[in-house]
Design brief:
Layout lengths: L4 E10 L13 E3 L5 E3 L4 H6 L1 E5 L8 H16 L8 E6 L11 E6 L13 E9 L5 E9 L5 E2 L10 E2 H13 L19 E3 L11 H10 L9 E8 L10 E6 L5 E6 L14 E7 L2 E8 L24 E2 L12 E3 L4 E2 L4 E2 L9 E6 L11 E8 L4 E10 L5 E4 L1 E4 L2 E6 L7 E10 L4 E4 L7 E4 L8 E6 L4 E6 L4 E7 L4 E6 L5 E9 L2 E10 L5 E6 L4 E6 L5 E6 L4 E6 L4 E7 L10 E3 L6 E5 L4 E6 L4 E7 L4 E6 L5 E6 L4 E5 L4 E6 L5 E6 L5 E6 L4 E6 L4 E7 L7 E6 L5 E6 L4 E6 L5 E6 L4 E7 L9 H7 L9 H10 L23 H10 L7
Parallel strand pairs: 1-11, 4-5, 4-6, 6-8, 9-10, 12-19, 12-20
Antiparallel strand pairs: 1-7, 2-3, 7-8, 12-15, 13-14, 13-16, 16-17, 16-18, 21-22, 22-26, 23-24, 23-27, 25-26, 27-28, 27-29, 30-31, 30-57, 31-32, 33-34, 34-35, 35-36, 37-38, 38-39, 39-40, 41-42, 42-43, 43-44, 45-46, 46-47, 47-48, 49-50, 50-51, 51-52, 53-54, 54-55, 55-56
Helix pairs in contact: 2-3
Length: 837
């Protein structure tokens, strides 16, 4: 006799939340005998086709739309080529939800009776699964909550607001096949379909599967293609050797740093569960290089969002990466091969190796265009005894190693500096700490895997900076060669950015996600790539505007109904203006040319608030088009242009403080920017993936330009200083596209990381200053000019090392005992320069 045990799996709503992680979790339960089982369909049924039945009449939509959405949602899972899984329509009719009929029914509940959740609970849909004591599924029904939610059935991605029915259907089918919720959250553009929350900011993004969703289906129903994938295995314990259950172990792409697939400790091997041995297996990994980290399950998604055996999970420990470091970018890489298991990749909670110096809080140089240096290295060194020495050992472009003592600044804080090196050089280094008992920690321990940074040789063409919302980085592109030359860390889920008028400092709003909303703005130097400050503001900083004088940055705090004002020189928030009466936001922001008035959008009230930043008061509210998102003010300060998230561009007469006209657009508009002369307005049509060109004199839509044939979700937008180029980011397809503003042909296309948003341009050239001492040292013939004769003399000495009879220290420009490539780079930097005696 079958013991039927129900599982209830909920899909919840969460407004305006980006997401940060990717991980699948199979449904693992205790049966009535207390044995741990994995809940899934019998292999033969999954292979031959799971039948489903649709109560089309229960939905308040056209039956053709329901048929299309159901078919597309099942197709998303059916097309996982590494899983042996298929589906078949069993019938359409007045089927009812039942746990015993072995019909997998999909139905719509307008009353909330079948859902069973109280009104306002946030439950969008529920999947009820029945299974036997072996874990074999016998029946699964999906019910949609029509009492509390409005659903969209449009084939195009709907705008913010309604819940996309296909998003939810695809998610619930994941439950139907045996997947639980993922334990982490992340940007909407890379979040897995099996995340427990539906974002109403970006409906439609869950229609397609991420690698972790496919990995989950493959784990439960492996097909022949699964042999092309690999796994990472290991064990998580505490310092006493006790197993740690429910630790989230994540595999990251070693190149991009993006999440790929993850697992929970305690669900692999023969001893599963809280009393098991803490083993994990990250399966479904394409061959390649990865970095592995462990994280506690807490925050926006906790154990409350994961069912089955997943309770009382191990938390309260710091993030850690293999092998015993606290940063992803310096973690040891792990290679995965097709059809092979890589491991053991074991973790012991806590970074300390008992008895040895511990290196933490590392602040390390990043790739930089700065040739002058120095390049600071800062960290904390702790030990049970005392630290007797700390050394920074480095080499430049393969030359000999140089040791620099780290000095103790105070307490456990140590720092050191690597002197400036020429453009094009690569610096490799490691840190060595020794205690009073002779115990030595070398980081990184592998001499073949040293820490590195590059001193970037730029072409001299404009440098383009793109905020990567899904990757938490600022990408740096050299437009002269089309290369991404650096990725600079930002805060959590960055969106907008502005630069000072001298283009020396970039300010980035780190919006955060979910209940983990951020409240910081990162300031980055474009000359050194150093993060010069992290500035605390209100919750959910979203859009920014810089004063024309460059002394102030204004920030909309979208989750705290306030406006922050940042002093650029002091790199701190000097004032916060509370916007009482605002319903949702503020989101967009603009500033009058004289800096006396700030304009922000209330996306819920369909209004623009007019703010006096000095007095800290709201002086007026202007009714505008629905869902106002972004703003820009005309150069003369007389007109405000407002983008409509639901479509349209509003034109506001600022003298009369009223909307005077609306321009119809194909769909929802995200960002708006003006040409330098103010005669052309550019806008991103986010739903259609178009660049819109508007004649502001005649107030008409002049041109609609497809950004890319396959691009989608056009978001970021900027115009070059001379107005000759327009830059657009496609957040879904991860592209940056550059247009010529005369012909609107595409000049360049860049493939970027995850969810590119804001774009900035540095047109000022980087002018490295070459010291007179370097010029003098390179003027070997002392004629006052570093010329061809000096080159011939240097070439004769190249390759000679100290101790050889013909070694001449004059040519050893870096003083490392060898005339090598680094000396050549130093000489090349001085070549053609005149020594000013």
């Amino acid at each position: 006799m079958l013991s039927r045990l129900p599982i209830l799996l909920f899909f919840l709503t969460l407004l305006c939340l980006p997401f940060t992680g990717q991980a699948f979790v199979p449904q693992i339960e205790f049966n009535e005998q207390g044995r741990i089982v994995t809940v899934s369909w019998p292999t033969s049924e999954a292979r031959n086709g799971l039948h489903y039945f649709v109560n089309t009449n229960s939905f308040p939509f056209n039956s053709r739309d329901i048929d299309r959405i159901v078919a597309n949602s099942f197709r998303a899972w059916d097309e996982v080529d590494t899983a042996d899984l298929s589906f078949a329509l069993g019938g359409v009719g007045n089927f009812r939800k039942s746990s015993t009929d072995r019909n997998n029914v999909i139905t719509y509940d307008p009353s909330g009776v079948q859902i069973g959740a109280p009104a306002g609970s946030g439950v969008i849909a529920i999947t009820t699964i029945n299974w036997d004591e072996q874990g074999r599924v016998t029946d699964a029904d999906i019910t949609f909550n029509g009492r509390d939610f409005n659903f969209s059935v449009t084939e195009a991605f709907p705008g913010p607001g309604p819940v996309d029915l296909q998003d939810v259907m695809t998610h619930e089918i994941g439950h139907l096949i045996g997947l639980d919720h993922t334990p982490l959250v992340g940007p909407t553009r890379i979040r897995p379909t099996m995340n427990p929350f539906a974002s109403q900011e970006d409906p439609g993004v869950a229609r397609t599967l991420e690698p972790d969703d496919a990995a989950g289906a493959t784990l439960l129903y492996p097909g022949s293609g699964a042999n092309q994938l690999g796994s990472i295995t290991g064990q998580v314990t505490d310092r006493n050797g006790n197993s740690s259950f429910g630790v989230h172990v994540v595999a990251y792409d070693a190149v991009t740093g993006d999440f790929v697939v993850s697992a929970l400790s305690g669900v692999a091997g023969d001893r599963k569960g809280r009393d098991g041995d803490g083993r994990y297996e990250i399966s479904g990994l394409p061959p390649g290089a990865y970095r592995v980290g462990i994280h506690p399950i807490q925050g926006a998604v906790s154990e409350n969002n994961i069912g089955g055996i997943f309770s009382r999970l191990r938390t309260g420990f710091a993030d850690e990466y293999y092998n015993n470091v606290d940063r992803l970018d310096i973690a040891q890489t792990v290679s995965v091969e097709s059809g092979r298991i890589t491991g053991p990749i074991d973790f012991v909670l806590g970074l300390t190796v008992l008895g040895f110096p511990q290196l933490t809080n590392l602040q390390l140089p990043v790739s930089t265009p700065d040739t002058q240096g120095p390049y600071p290295v800062r960290l904390s060194i702790t030990d049970e005894g005392s630290v007797v020495s700390a050394v920074l050992r480095y080499r430049v472009s393969g030359s000999g190693f140089v040791d620099v003592a780290l000095w103790n600044e105070a307490g456990n804080a140590y720092s050191g500096e690597i002197p400036g090196v020429p453009a094009g050089a690569r610096v490799e280094y490691q840190i060595i700490a020794r205690d009073d008992e002779g115990n030595e920690t070398v980081f990184p321990p592998d001499a073949a895997n040293l820490l590195t940074f590059d001193v970037i040789a730029l072409t001299g063409e404009p440098v383009v900076y793109v905020v990567q919302s899904g990757s938490n980085v600022l990408s740096v592109l050299d437009s002269g060669n089309g290369r991404e030359v650096a990725r600079l860390e930002t805060g959590d889920t960055p969106h907008d950015a502005v630069t000072t008028p001298d283009q020396e400092t970039i300010f980035i709003a780190n919006t955060g996600f979910g209940s983990q909303t951020s409240r910081t703005v990162t300031a980055i130097s474009t000359s050194t790539h150093e993060a010069v400050a992290t500035i605390n503001v209100g919750f959910g900083p979203l859009d920014l505007v810089m004063s024309r004088s460059g002394d102030l940055v204004y920030v909309t705090n979208s989750d705290s109904r306030s406006l922050s004002i940042i002093d650029v020189d002091g790199l701190r928030e000097t004032k916060r203006v509370n916007l009482s009466g605002l319903i949702d936001g503020p989101f967009g922001i603009a500033l009058s040319p004289d800096g006396s008035t700030v304009y922000v959008t209330d996306i819920g009230a369909d209004q623009v608030f007019v703010v006096d930043p000095v007095a800290g008061t709201v002086t007026a509210r202007i009714d505008v088009l629905p869902s106002p998102r972004s703003l820009v003010v005309s150069p003369d300060g007389s007109t405000l242009y407002v983008s409509g998230f639901d479509g349209g561009i509003g034109i506001v007469d600022l003298n009369g403080q009223r909307e005077v006209e609306r321009i119809t657009t194909p769909s929802g508009v995200f960002r708006v920017k003006l040409s330098p002369d103010g005669r052309t307005l550019y806008a991103t049509d986010q739903d259609g993936g178009n660049l819109l060109v508007i004649d502001t004199v005649n107030r008409r839509l002049e041109r609609t330009v497809k950004v890319l044939p396959t691009g989608a979700n056009s978001r970021g937008l900027t115009v070059s200083a001379n107005g000759s180029r327009v830059y657009v980011t496609n957040a879904s397809s991860n592209d940056l596209v550059v247009f010529d503003t005369t012909s609107f042909t595409i000049i360049d296309t860049y493939k970027l990381g995850e969810a590119p948003r804001a774009i900035l341009i540095r047109s000022r050239s980087f002018q490295p200053t070459i010291s007179q001492s370097t010029i003098a040292l390179s003027d070997f013939d002392t004629d006052g000019v570093v010329g061809f004769t000096d080159f011939l003399l240097f070439a004769q000495a190249f390759g000679i090392t100290s101790g050889e009879s013909d070694f001449d220290a004059r040519f050893d420009l870096d003083g490392n005992g060898s005339v090598d490539f680094l000396d050549f780079l130093l000489f090349a930097q001085a070549f053609g320069q005149t020594f000013l005696n």
